[in-house]
Amino acid sequence: MPNLDPRLRLDVLGAGPAYTDRPGAVGAAYLVRHGSTALVLDLGQGAFTRLAGTIEPSTLDAILVSHLHPDHFVDLVAMRHYLRWEFRPHRHLRVIGPAGLEQRLDALHGEPGFCAAVLDIEPLTAGSLVVGDALVEAARIHHTEDSYAFRVSRPGGGTGLVYSGDCGRAEDLDALIQPGDTLLSEVSFGPGPADPDAAHLDGPAVGRLAARTSAGQVLLTHLLMGHDDDATIDSVRVHFDGPVTLVAPGDEYGIGG
Ligand SMILES: [Zn+2]
Ligand SMILES: [Zn+2]
Q1: What is the band of 41 on the pLDDT scale with cuts at 50, 70, 90?
Q2: Ligand 2 is an ion; residues with CB less than 5 A from it
Q3: What is the dihedral of CA 21, 25, 26, 31, to 10 degrees?
Q4: How far is the CA of 118 from the centre of ligand 2 (A)?
Q5: If you measure from the C-alpha of residue 73 to the centroid of ligand 1, how many angstroms do you get, rounded to a whole number?
Q6: What's the 222 CA to ligand 1 centre distance in angstroms?
Q7: Considering the domain boundaries, does residue 254 fall inside one?
Q8: So what's the pLDDT on residue 157?
Q9: Mean predicted lDDT score pLDDT of the chain
């Protein structure tokens, strides 16, 4: 049955950081759908299984990778095997990520051409691209040397979803966020303070970002172990008076309208 909901739909497949003791945690992965368009932002550890339990993975329009830390892309190995071995003939999938992604995955498997068999990898650069019936804007942010945040919206405009990826300087996200947007932001260091050498955010930085950009709501993710959920949410609310939620795998949200 076609999805006639005019809003974007976000399914949180995974919201984890690189490691955690949180039961059931899955690496970063967010399924965004609009009509018949479906794309995934990042595919961290354990995310393939959740993806396959939510949608037929081979029907995705694209997977976008924010940066080359494995907690954001390592389940592309599972995706590659699935597309290569589950179907006769095998199926291809569009993947958009920073330069070097293909070489990383080939090296991990020790097999030149491992990716190219089924993953059609395109280099990610700052700017706009069209994925199915969705518009994606990518912006360079401070984290690794080649890290990106994304804004996903419907072609006709309206509010969208901004995903921070991993981000060490909240100001880098300002230009991407439009009033009313849903801000899906990393909050690695919880209530703070963030380690200045770690290139991640804390709650007060996210709260101030949401307030000055007039975000519609804040969804928090990528919380490192050892930080309290409620204290993290409260540290955002000190600065931002809109809705604030800490997301978990299985959560669903409607965005825009
Ligand atoms: Zn990460
Ligand atoms: Zn990272």
Answers
A1: very high
A2: 69, 166
A3: -150
A4: 25
A5: 10
A6: 7
A7: no
A8: 82
A9: 96
Domain that holds residue 101: 8-247
pTM (global) more than 0.90 = yes
What is the total count of domains within the chain? Answer: 1
- 52 is a domain residue: yes
Angle formed by the axes of helices 229-237 and 203-212, to 10°? 30
- Examine residue 25 and state whether it is found in any structural domain, yes or no: yes
Closest ligand to C-alpha of residue 187 is 1
Q: What is the CATH number of the domain that holds 171?
A: 3.60.15.10
Could you report the per-residue pLDDT of 43-88, keeping only the tens digit for each? 999 999 999 999 999 999 999 999 999 999 999 999 999 999 999 9
pLDDT tens digits, one per residue of 156-204: 888 999 999 999 999 999 999 999 999 999 999 999 999 988 999 999 9
The rounded Å distance from CA 94 to ligand 2 centre is: 22
